[in-house]
Structures are given as structure tokens and as C-alpha cells.
Amino acid sequence: MIAIFNSGRPGFAGVLVDTDEKKVIQDLVKVTDGWGIATQYKKQKGMRCKTERIAERFTGFDSEGYHDDETGEFVNTQRPSIASKYKVCERFEFMSDLIDMVIADVSPSAIVTGPAGVGKTYEVGEGIDRCGVPREQVIIIKGFTTPLGLFRVLHDNRSGLIVFDDCDSAFQDQTARNLLKAALDSVERRIISWNSSKLPDEFDPSFEFKGRILFVSNIPVNRFDPTLVSRSMIIDLQMTRDEIVDHIEKIAPKVRIVMNGEAEIKPTAAEVKDVCTFLRENKDSISDLNIRTYIKVMKVRRHKAKGNWLGMAEYMTQS
N or C: which end of the chain has fewer CB within 10 A? Predict the structure, then answer.
């Protein structure tokens, strides 16, 4: 059987396990990612079985570690987590300070990582406003970029602030990684070069980069290229499910709820309490627990206030 267990690890909603071989297939930042991975794995192995979600913690992590099926590397699960020493609010304060340091050019780069939908992008925007940088002067790259596209961004914004928000392609391609390594190198002059006859004429084949870069990603730090990690300040916002709900409860009054695409609503204290209580009571079985889930359930709570909103919310968040 292939099963998705509660991983019991901060920031990971689940872990996909081949229960017959007692082997971890993959850590899952979102449980919903597991179904496709499980299907692919079963096809490769010629397995004919179903995938089940099991709320209990996978006891395989009680051992010294496991071998990652994707990388073949041994993952030591006994490494103590520093996160437990600091409350979530303190970790977010560290993130805000780190963002300020990059914007002020104290550090050329920072990596902010953690579960999806906990407010990383929002905090970056708040930091930009707090430091008085006009939004139109900040280059935000989302989605996908080719190495040449990355070179263009670095070339045209060589003294600016660049934010790569969920643009994981920027550091997954080897050529792109080499460009970023040059941009963030710990030397007096950071020179970036593109030695190719196919380079468009409007580009300088070599230039000095004096800008700053913020990476915002859901990818765990241990899956970043080590050379980028060594060149950047890092804040890892991995959280347990209880901590995610605590964080949602704290920021709920500031969360924008938009209905019908334009009208912003302000939930009542009773509505906020109802939704947060629902999230806490169902935290272990909700497939995608984050602020976006809070917004979805709040819309259900408001729209079906006189109906079975709890049933609808449960079915929607756990399907």
C-alpha cells in the first residue's frame, strides 16, 4: 500500500510511504502533491494498489533517518530543529529584519522559504513599503524564467532590487544557477558574463552587478543549491500545523477577504472565531492548511451562514 502519513515534521504536511518496503518516497509540503507522485511511483513499480491518507505520524522518522528515493541521499531526521526555540511571531520578525537588511544593501541576497500561503510574499511587500522603496522600482519575477531571461533581468536591473517569488526555475537550471552565483559572489566586484555569439546585440556580454535579490519559495532549504545557500541570508519558516493555525489566528484581522472579485468584506469576530476553530479541529486532515484555506472557508461560512457550512467546508478542504 502507498500511504500519506502525517510527517510530524515542521513545515511538511505529509510524507509519502511505500508501506510494503517501509520506504519513504517523498516529503510533501502539500499533501495534495502526493496523489500524482503516488500514481507515478506505482506505475514505475508495476503496483496495483490504492493510495490512502492516514493521519497518524509515520514512525519511520523515529529512526536515525531514511534514504531519499529521489536523490538517493541519506536524510538524518535526528538533527534538532532550532525552530522550536522561537515562537512563530519571532520567526516572522526575523524575516522582516532580514528583508530590511537586503533592501538596505547590508546583504546582497536572502532566501525566505516555508509552507505555501503563510504570508511570505505579503511580508516582502510590507518590507518594501516600510523601507520607502517605490513598488515600481522593484522587479518581481513570478512563474518561470529561462537562463537568458534571467540574464536579461540581471542585466537591466544591475543596481536594483529583484524578487524571485515562486520562480523556482531561476535556480534549478545549471546555467541559471551559475548566473546567480556570479551575481551573489562574496567578492568586491560581482561580474556576470554571457559568452555566446547568440547573445542579442543590446546586451553587454559582461557587466558588474550591484543589485540585491530576494528569493521567496516553498522549497525546503535542503533542496536549494548549496552554493546559493552559502551566498545568502536564510530564514526558514517551516511550521507545525498547530503553529500554522496560531499564525492564522493572529493575522486573521488583517487578511483581505474579497467577494465577487472586487468587494472586500470585513468578517465579524464571531465569523473569525468559527473559521479558526474549524481549522484547528481539522488541522490534521486538511490537505492544504494555510491562509488561503482560511479565506476559502471564510467565504463558505459567510455565503452559507444559514446552511450546512461546516459540512461543505469539511468536504472542500479534505477532498
Answer: C
Q: Are 54 and 66 in contact (CB under 8 A)?
A: no
Count of structural domains, the chain: 3
d(CA 254, CA 256): 6
Same domain, 149 and 221: yes
Q: Does residue 26 contact residue 19 with C-beta atoms inside 8 Å?
A: no
- Does 87 share its domain with 232? yes
Q: What is the pLDDT at residue 95?
A: 93
Would you state the pLDDT for residue 245?
93
pLDDT top residue among 107 and 168:
107
Are the CB atoms for 104 and 233 separated by under 8 Å?
no
Query: With contact defined as beta carbons under 8 Å apart, do 143 and 167 qualify?
Result: yes
For residue 13, which of 306, 224, 241, 174 has the smallest C-alpha distance? 241
Question: Kindly report the CA angle at 105 between 180 and 84, in degrees rounded to 5?
Answer: 80
Q: In what order do the strands lie in the sheet with 212-217?
A: 138-142, 161-165, 212-217, 109-113, 233-236
Position 213, amino acid: I
CA gap 177, 179 in Å, rounded: 5
Phi, psi of 257 (to 5 degrees): -110, 110
Q: What residues make up the domain containing 163?
A: 83-236
Task: Look at residue 123 and give its three-state secondary structure.
Answer: helix
Task: Tell me: do 135 and 194 sit in the same domain.
Answer: yes
Can you say whether residue 19 is alpha, beta or left, with left for phi > 0 and alpha for psi between -120 and 50 degrees?
alpha
